[in-house]
Design goal:
Length: 111
Amino acid sequence: MLQAVWFDAGPEQAGRLLLAIHHLAVDGVSWRILVPELGAAFEAIAAGRLPELEPCGTSFRHWAQRLMAAAQEPARLEQLSYWKARLSGPDQPITHQALDLERDTFATARH
């Protein structure tokens, strides 16, 4: 799930660290948090200091526990029948126009 490779550039140049981590271990959002922290930690170590990272925000465990507790609150449970009814029918079409098999293809898709 993780591969770390150090590229030693010799005594005159700084080496490079390559981190390859499977997306099941670290997602794209987490990378945006980890990369600056790894950079700050590396710079501190290179300067002979201990890394001082920002304190953690909400942990995933705490967030999941709060989400589960919120789902059991009476106000949320009152909404349950509405959402079940809303989701019990067929999916609504994106458009009421008929598909044009010549035009509406993957090749003509846009963002």
